[in-house]
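Quick start: read one record
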Amino acid sequence: MIKFIIRRMLIAIPQLFVLSLLVFFLATLMPGDAFTGMVDPDITPERLEELRELHGLNDPWYEQYGRWMSGALQGDFGQSFRFKQPVADLIGDRIWNSVWLGVFTLVFSYLLAIPLGIVSGRYNDSWLIKQLLDLRMLVLLRRHLFLA
């Protein structure tokens, strides 16, 4: 079991790297930059270019990614242009809501799944169990139906 967990963690490293590279590259393809629409309308184009140069937005994408990745590996995710504070602080303020939601979902899932599993095992071929299985299939397919 320990070998399995270690293998999965080692597989996750290149996956996270490729995912971060993909998201970063797609973000560079979007029109505009971090200052588009977030600055004073009276700002001069020279000042806007100065801000882009100051924050390294004129550098090629691979240099920007390398700078971001080296900071991220040290726990520095940069500064939020919108909230004017470190991104790590913003994540830290909001992480507990995500943890609470995850724990609540896990507990609710087990409280629902265990009794339904017991009932399903006890009354294997009944009409009610067949309806519950159909309902389960619809719930599982829900996201695919919405995406289509």
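The two ends are 38 Å apart (CA to CA).
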